[in-house]
Amino acid sequence: MSATIRIAIASIVIGTLVLGIKMLAWWLTGSVALFADALESTVNVATAIAAFIAIRVAAKPADASHPYGHHKAEFFSAVLEGVMIIVAALLILREAYAGFLTPRVMDLPIEGLLINGAATVINAVWAWILISRGRAARSPALVADGKHLFTDVITSAGVALGILLAIFTGWWVLDPLMAGLVAVNILWSGFNVVRVSLSGLMDEAVSQETLDKVREVISKEAGGAVEAHDLRTRHAGQATFIDFHLVVPGETTVFDAHEICDRVEAALKDVVEGAKITIHVEPEHKKKHSGIVVLD
After folding, report:
1. Residue closest to 232 by CA, chosen among 268, 278, 293
2. Which of 121, 141, 175, 282 is the most buried (most CB within 10 A)?
């Protein structure tokens, strides 16, 4: 079992634990804001399950039906997570509106805050682990899950502040008001998760920083070639696809051209983790004078 899959399973367990703790805090207090916080944790559990399934699918090797692999499965998971976040936010807005019309005094607010605070600490630690490990493993599903959890930590802190103000001022309308603010923040988070994931599904190119590294490697390592042009990149989950045309002198043998390609591929894989490289070799008359200049 890979480390990424183990982390995904742990997310399900921790998400369920945090959900139980937050539901206890809501049950003790009857707070609309704490209900909103708990409802977001319901989304966490569901999306952790979706991330686990997506990672398992993405790890499958290429086959006849999917010759480029199953890497994009993780993007589908992240899109699903974003949509579920938005749905949860709309449900919270509905509860906040009802609470705003008929505000009520909370039961055991301090006890509820302490219990909810314990859940927030657990989420903060796990969010940091998910983001750091997800980036190291180049897993969009884990990074998206971690970012959402971090948003949950921030909103939980806001909820606690709002409830404390309600306790000290007696303005119990602050409870549903905080729930409404949480919902707006969750909506924004869900929108960003969907936006980033759709860019991956649409075969968005790698970052400019990565692209500059790729061009530099080709320029330095393709000695014996003339130029490289029509460079294209895209990322899909843990894989980064790179393809380009490599122009070689007309007298270059197939063996020598292949040696150049092997050298470039090895160098690219050293700087771009998970690189999947395709090089189309062309004779010198195909030179475009507008691509990557190869250094001698």
Report:
1. 278
2. 141
d(CA 25, CA 110): 10
- 10-residue mean pLDDT series, the chain (296 residues): 76 90 90 82 75 72 75 70 78 81 80 92 91 78 76 82 86 85 78 72 80 92 92 81 93 93 94 90 85 74
Concatenating the DSSP letter of every residue in 207-255 gives PHHHHHHHHHHHHHH-BTB-EEEEEEEEEETTEEEEEEEEE--TT--HH
Same structural domain, 143 and 32 = yes
Interatomic CA distance for residues 37 and 185, integer angstroms: 12
* Residue recorded with tokens 């692999």: 69
- Same domain, residue pair 257 and 152: no
Domain that holds residue 272: 208-293
Q: In the Cβ-directed half-sphere of 50, how many Cα atoms lie within 13 Å?
A: 22
Paired residues of 278 in beta bridges: 243
Could you give the CA distance from residue 271 to residue 112 in angstroms, rounded to a whole number?
49
